[in-house]
Amino acid sequence: MFVSLGRTNTFPASGTWYLFDYGRVISTEPLAEDWDALGEAAGLDLRSPSSSYWAARLEYDGGGLSPAEYWSSVLGRTVGGDDLDRLEELDAACGPG
User: 0.85 cut: is pTM over it?
Assistant: First the structure.
């Protein structure tokens, strides 16, 4: 339940919810070391807005690509197994901010 200005508003418990963190209220900006570690694992500079990291990011974050499909797109080669696990772990530290 959400209470605002003395009125009670209820929201449906089911359905699709999206959480937007404008201004980094509940999350923080990735550290330079996090980006460096991800770039080293990928063998690419991924920070630049024009990098392959961002080209399919919206589709990936929207659920249109699996992690393997996304990282294969980013790296231009098939990615799986331990490499995929490592990239996912490092990406979680960076997360699009």
Answer: no
